[in-house]
From TrEMBL, chain A:
Taxonomic path: Bacteria, Bacillati, Bacillota, Bacilli, Bacillales
Name used for this protein in its record: ATP-binding cassette domain-containing protein
GO molecular function, a single term: ATP binding
InterPro entries in the cross-refs: AAA+_ATPase, ABC_transporter-like_ATP-bd, ABC_transporter_ATP-binding, P-loop_NTPase
Pfam family, one: ABC_tran
Domain ABC transporter: 25-258
Native organism: Peribacillus butanolivorans
UniProt keyword annotations, A-Z: ATP-binding, Nucleotide-binding, Transport
Amino-acid biosynthesis among keywords: no
Length: 335, 261, 263
């Protein structure tokens, strides 16, 4: 029982209507529909240990949400086995949901028109949390997320960042051993993102809470997860450490420079560096790009070399996004 | 027991929301009231031109209408799910419902309660007492109990139809106008079924049991012995149909596809 | 004029996209007509006529009243209310047309569409199921058409009035609902006006509502004598003219309000 989640040969198919073309086709559609069966999740297997923090990533439509919805008991799988917290999520839904917390970034758990604490109060009853448990646990949560001043405001008056922090607190009212987060930081500013990440790390440490999150933000993953499960077209294409994924598939680092005075490309290429950097001129943006392997202090060496020779107007360091990693994996074939 | 306490929790939550929009609250009651007045006016005007409607007198028809208002008020307060498909399936609110440890139908119903419709119970009782008095109806000691049982039975029959129709959303989220159609068919149950032809009477009794919301149970209190069998069947019909509809709902939840796919 | 025609056309195309709604709409109206058909049959019992209408005429009355409603009914009051609440009305004001005129044309576009795709097929369906009697005289059809146009105008004018009140009562959803119920009752949709007690008929003479449903339906069922028809049409026309006054007055005040509040 050291596994929080066990998934075996999990599969979910959706039936979708495909309409025939033309007027004649439209009439035939009235009588008999053509159905196409599309597998959204295609025989996947994985386990998550208790206390692990795992990022579940992939492009839109890769099957992330469908998997999460099966793991949380919302959808019934077409085939395969799921055991989460020792239960079958869909079959024992009401008992099972007692043991999980869920945050959907784009959907609110809270009552729109009334004060946040009223929502908390109701959810406390829904999850049958006793007063002692609630006070003991939530006081800490409210303090760490810094939402004390927000509790008597109606949800509709909160900013997105404020609301997200309240959503997170609401999902933790019953202190679940397993937390599902679907895009928890989408649309938030950097400070709120950092606060949420810190908080998640803390509860993971304090309660050994297992966390499974989907995200498009590489920053979330870097801050929280050692393990990444990557999904594409319903299949797992990578399951392992974040670092080795990045080492293998992240493109070289790109550093973009803009200069105050005109600079020739060959001048840049002849800069003295202990490693190789490829220089390219980007005409569209009027910038020079240096591309190189991301290793130790290479970036700082590069920047200091450039700064000591030229007057620069702007520097940007380009971060590889998850989408780019996925694209790279595709371009180069199998993992 | 847990469900009873949850019921009151949600009701208090609802009250807090409602108190924020007090004007709406009264407008809602007022427009319900206006609707009821229009229906009464219709009956009164019609009986300016005839003494009997298939053997039912004016007061009896008014009594039936008054009785109908009570299960209907119970139904509209607690089963306000006519926009279930749009609100919960298309917009995906069902996802949230399914992550909580309470039966999904129970949650949906509680989230959508509209207690102002309960005012219809008051109007209904006033109408019943007024018409009952002019009919000189006699009450046995157990009649109030039967009254409650019949009203709840009727409300369950009504609710069953709408729960079953809402469940269609799990199979197909295409927009349909079946819901408004049902509200219209429901109006058939306000009048004695013997004015309709056989097919409609059969449908209103056994397929869409709207007759058990108005005429059938009311005929017991009007002492129409030829309808007693139907009157006493009201709670049974209510329970059976409601059980079936919850079963359909549960099957539907298994088919739920989630939003946005 | 061209821009108003374009607006009618736009609405028409929009409605075409939602045509499946109409099939169920026809069904709903037929159910309503059915309920009243049985009810009226029971009311007539073995009487041959009530207030000068035979049982057959009554069925026709109910059918035509509902199908005519499909033509004159629109939701522009709610649309205006929403546009005011969303602040869209300020944008509409700077467009080179008369806002109320445009709303009326949208209503007309919707009405014409429903006339062809709802009222006519609906009437055919209903005539197939229930025993109704269509007018024999071509002239009756013509007069009915004119009267129906008036009823559209009167109903739309009342909707405009209700819509404009949003400027003054922020939330008028209740008023809009109440208005609809009142029109159903006092326009003669549910009951011919001649069925009401005399005192009530006297009161209703001074209200515009019977011009919406009662007059065209009575013309269609041949319920009027020839002298009455002229009077009824004249009455409709007078209401069309009278109602312009409060609309214009309210509109002027509303526009001032809009400038102060900034929309």
């Amino acid at each position: 029982m050291s596994d929080a989640i066990q998934v075996k040969q999990l599969r979910k198919e959706f039936k979708s209507v495909s309409s025939r073309s033309g007027l004649k086709g439209a009439f035939r559609d009235l009588l008999t529909r053509n159905y196409k069966i599309v597998p959204a999740v295609n025989d996947i297997n994985f386990t998550v240990k208790k206390g692990e923090m795992v990022a579940y990533i992939g492009e839109n439509g890769a099957g992330k949400s469908t998997t999460i919805k099966m793991l949380t008991g919302i959808l019934e799988p077409t085939a395969g086995e799921i055991t989460v917290n020792g239960m079958n999520p869909h079959k024992e839904r009401e008992k099972f949901t007692q043991t999980i917390g869920v945050v959907f970034g784009q959907r609110s758990q809270l009552w729109w028109d009334i004060a946040v604490q009223e929502s908390f109060r109701l959810l406390k009853k829904v999850y049958k949390v006793s007063d002692e448990q609630y006070n003991d646990h939530m006081e800490h949560v409210i303090k760490t997320l810094d939402i004390g001043p927000l509790l008597d405001k109606p949800v509709r008056k909160l900013s997105l960042g404020q609301r997200m922090r309240c959503e997170l607190a609401a999902a933790l009212i019953h202190n679940p051993p397993l937390l599902f987060l679907d895009e928890p930081t989408i649309g938030l500013d950097v400070l709120v993102k950092m606060k949420i990440r810190e908080f998640l790390k803390e509860i993971n440490k304090k309660y050994n809470t297992t966390i499974l999150l989907t995200t498009h933000d590489l920053g979330d993953i870097e801050a929280l997860c050692e393990r990444v499960i990557m999904l594409d077209e319903g299949q797992i294409i990578y399951d392992g450490e974040l670092q080795s994924l990045k080492d293998n598939w992240a493109e070289e680092k790109q550093v973009h420079f803009q200069f105050i005075e005109p600079v020739e490309l060959h001048e840049l290429q002849s800069l003295p560096l202990p490693f190789t950097a490829n220089w390219v001129y980007d005409e569209k943006h009027q910038t020079y790009m240096a591309m190189m392997k991301e290793e130790s202090d290479h970036i700082s060496q590069l920047v200091s070399a450039v700064v000591s020779h030229f007057k620069i107007k702007d520097v940007k360091i380009h971060e590889t996004s998850i989408e780019e990693i996925v694209r790279n994996i595709y371009e180069e074939g199998t993992v | 027991m847990f469900y009873v306490s949850m019921f009151f929790q949600y009701v208090s939550q609802y009250m807090k929301t409602r108190l924020q929009y007090r004007a709406d609250f009264f407008m809602e009651i007022l427009s319900d009231l206006l609707n009821q007045v229009v229906n009464l006016v219709f009956i009164l005007v019609v009986f300016g031109h005839t003494q009997f409607l298939s053997g039912w007198s004016r007061e009896e028809i008014i009594f039936i209408y008054g009785f109908f208002l009570i299960p209907f008020a119970l139904f509209s307060s607690f089963f306000n799910i006519w926009d279930f498909n749009d609100r919960y399936i298309v917009k995906g609110e069902m996802d949230r419902i399914l992550t909580r440890p309470i039966h999904s139908l129970f949650q949906v119903i509680l989230e959508r309660i509209e207690l102002e419709s309960l005012f219809g119970v008051v109007t209904g009782l006033i109408i019943i007492f007024y018409s009952g008095a002019s009919l000189n109806l006699e009450l046995a000691w157990y009649d109030p109990i039967l009254f409650v049982i019949f009203a709840v039975g009727g409300a369950l029959a009504y609710a069953a139809i709408f729960v079953a129709i809402a469940s269609i959303g799990f199979w197909s989220d295409a927009k349909t106008s079946i819901m408004p159609m049902m509200y219209n068919i429901g109006n058939y149950g306000r009048y004695p079924v013997d004015i309709y032809n056989k097919v409609i009477r059969f449908v209103l009794t056994w397929v869409l049991p709207f007759a058990f919301v108005g005429v059938y149970p009311a005929s017991y209190f009007l002492r129409k012995e030829e309808w007693y069998a139907y009157a006493f069947a009201t709670p049974v019909i209510g329970l059976v149909f409601f059980t079936v509809s919850v079963f359909i709902w549960n099957q539907g939840v298994k088919r739920y596809r989630g939003a946005g796919n | 004029m061209g821009k108003y025609l374009a607006m009618i056309r736009m609405r028409f195309l929009m409605m075409l996209a939602y045509r499946t709604d109409y099939y169920t709409g026809i069904l709903i109206y037929s159910i309503n007509i059915g309920a009243y058909y049985f009810l009226w049959n029971a009311i007539y019992g073995d009487k041959s006529s009530i207030e000068g209408l035979s049982s057959m005429q009554m069925t026709t009355y109910v059918a035509v009243a509902w199908m005519a409603r499909a033509f004159y009914f629109n939701n522009i009051d709610r649309e205006i209310a929403n546009e005011i609440k969303d602040g869209k009305v300020a944008i509409e004001m700077i467009r080179p047309y008369n806002y109320l005129g445009m709303k009326t044309m949208q209503g007309l576009g919707e009405g014409i569409f429903r006339f062809f795709f709802f009222s006519i097929p609906g009437m055919l369906l209903v005539a197939f199921i229930f025993p109704i009697e269509l007018p024999h005289e071509p002239a009756t059809w013509g007069i009915f058409g004119i009267s129906l146009l008036f009823s559209f105008i009167i109903n739309t004018q009342i909707n405009l009035l209700t819509g404009i009140t949003t400027f003054f009562l922020y939330n008028n959803a209740g008023l809009i609902r109440a208005k609809r119920v009142i029109i159903d009752l006092f326009s003669g949709l549910l009951l011919p006006i001649s069925f009401y007690p005399i005192w009530a008929q006297e009161v209703m003479k001074y209200l515009p509502f019977q011009g919406i449903s009662y007059v065209p339906s009575m013309i269609f069922t041949n319920g009027y004598s020839s002298g009455d028809i002229g009077m009824a049409l004249l009455q409709q026309l007078i209401w069309v003219i009278i109602l312009i006054i409060p609309i214009q007055l309210l509109w002027i005040v509303a526009k001032k309000q809009l400038i102060i509040q900034g929309g």
